[in-house]
Amino acid sequence: MSYPSDSTTPHRRAGKTFQLARFAAAIAWAASSRLLADSSARGLTTRFDMDTWQPFLSAIFLLFLLAIGYFLLQTISRRPASIRAVLGLPTRSTAAEEWLIGAAIGWGMVILAILPMALTGSLHVTFWTESGTLRLVVANILTVAAASLAIEVVFRGYPFRCLVETIGPIAATVFMSVLFALAQVLANGATSTGVLVALLLSIIFSVAWFRTHGLWLGWGMHFAWTASMGILFGLPVSGHHDLSVLVATVATGRRWLTGGHYGPEAARLTLAALAIGLIVLVRVTRDYAWNYTHPPIIPGGFPMEARPSAAHAAMEQAAQGRPPSLVQILPSAPQGRSVGDPPQDSKQEPSPEM
Predict the structure, then answer these.
(1) For residue 41, is it within any domain?
(2) What do you get for the CA distance between the two ends of the chain, in Å?
(3) What is the mean pLDDT of the chain?
(4) Whole-prediction pTM
(5) Helix (H/G/I), strand (E/B), else coil: 332
(6) Which segments of the chain are extended strands (E)?
């Protein structure tokens, strides 16, 4: 026995196969673009003696290559869209507001992560006031802004949306979060706690996407997380001290509290800070989730217009072509008195004439 849905099954499978192919192509393009962007930035900065700006130029080149490649993939799929929409940065009136809210949440999570270290006296801060420090700070801020956006485009942007259409939101979130954590291990040698922190952090960024269907919120969170930890507080970010140019902080103490040389992203209490940040994220994005993720309400149901009866239809048909009849409206008040006279009792006998 065949069911009506059986005829559409091959089309659905073909659609999922095509989405999976788009996801694989998007990831492959991201990896090759990263190598090409690093090589181009290195050659350009070496030629013009601009080593300070090499990370920034690498991130900018990567964003440019991602935009071109993903736009072409979207065009091939016959779903035309603007480059901003393909990257996951839709034009909306609340874009700046979402970014600032995300930055506030990211900054708050960093505060919660390093607060136990500060209360236990585990942080030792040093300030650098050498010439050229301000220029390095500006370069690092721009680098973090561009690099965090590029990472979000790769892990929560076009490839992520292709995967969601293929295997669903939950499986796509888990898969991309595991991929993000593995990238941290391969690039920075993360510890087991660092892997868990990267996994949970990626889940939070994915939730930010699902709550707004845009990268503005997640980009703000990612930027504030990295900039606050590395530039503002001078702590290691995933084991790297490259951002600590104005403030350099050394954390001493037990590894579960400070994260050791890897930084707060390897501290166990950071997991609690991220859990609190996830709860706050869900609560403050209720309006965004309603406005940007729910489909519009379309009136539906059955038509309620009652058809006229056969006798009424015959009467209207017979009346067609006839001149309209005049209707006389009689006055409702007696004509023997004016409006201001008191009413008279109709049963009262007329008084005899004198």
Answers:
(1) no
(2) 106
(3) 85
(4) 0.79
(5) coil
(6) 123-127, 247-251
